[in-house]
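**Archive record**
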Amino acid sequence: MAKARVLRPKLPRASSRRLLGFGGLGIAAAAYVGVDYLRYLSPAWHDWLQPALWAALALAAAARAPFYRHWSAELRAALPFLGSIAFMLAAFLCEAISVRFVSAVMGLQWHRSAAPLPDTGQWLLLSLNEKLPQSIVNLLRAHVITLHHYLMLFIMLGFSVLFDCIKAPGLGIATRYMFTMAIGRLLRTITFVATILPSARPWCAEARYRIPPHPHPWAQKYYVPYASDSNAIRRVITHDMAYAAVQAYPDEYRPDWGRMSFLVDILRPTPGEGPSWYHLLKKASGGCNDLMYSGHMLVAVLTAMAWTEAYGGWISVAIWLLVLHSAQREIRERHHYSVDCVVAIYVGILLWRMTGFIWSARDASRTRRLAKLDEVQSRLLHAAKDSDIDEIRDLLKEVELAGQEKQGFSQRAILAFAAGTIIFTLSCVLLAFTMTSDG
């Protein structure tokens, strides 16, 4: 008697999804970066093609949304998504306060006189400029991709869930991205506050900030008397106690910020910088000290990691090449030292690996179906031996149902959530595009 064949349920294959992405998502991402670079090559074409591209992408997403099958999964992921947004905004607020502190604590005179640190990466790039063909040097200098491009590339990746290019829910990968970003920004804040490093651009603070010329009282007492005198440094190490007399400095300006007045000592405002602490923080920008590690590179690496895990393929390789291009340009233009870019790359990779519990590209429904299949395998064999077609059909239905998502929400709630999500996400796209277009 021939051995009965066990019928395995047909599982969705990644190949069809990847084929769709190869024809759509990868080309759309490349088109976005290429069209935006036309602003340098042909501004007239850029002014026409960029709105057309964005309109086409928005219309495609809106047209696909009613046919998306995983809105219930998106709805379940909404609360963690909103929580990650709140966490990320809190991390950015902490970072902005710290950026202002390290920019103002030493005073403007220190920024003018502090020499940049020796950076062998900068030396290497300058030497390569003398040896490489001019066309290669021009390519390395070109502003092919900047901060807002990486943000938009991730948003495109998240929207691709509508076309089954990546695993649902799309809010799941967005939650992981923002949560990882928040952790990375907090670690970065702790790092650059711990040791204040001079900027690779000594003129930056004078051009960007209105800060007092003299050091903060903390620096006046604990740093200035021991900054250059080797005997004074040896003595303070020996006694482990500040001993030098503080020189005469102007009094600190202390506005009345109500409950937030404790920030006066941290932010060091000046009379002409606005009436509120929040107004002052809006001018924090990217800081003028060297901020270890690079925040721009952290965003770039997290975007590349998200594409690599969720999508893969040739476009992910291209994004990693753009990450390396961005790193050398950060160093070349002296926005950061080489160490900042190196640390940002491996910290971003490690953080993304550590937050895989939030969202993973692995198909959980496939895993559930296979587990259910293993559970009913003996029953399926007996049914096949007995030629019990009805029992085989019922068992296969159990396997298929094991991989399906539980709805748990009314159709009206799902439709309302879908409409709100599309509007909210498109608004975020516009805000990110306008607020980060200057890098």
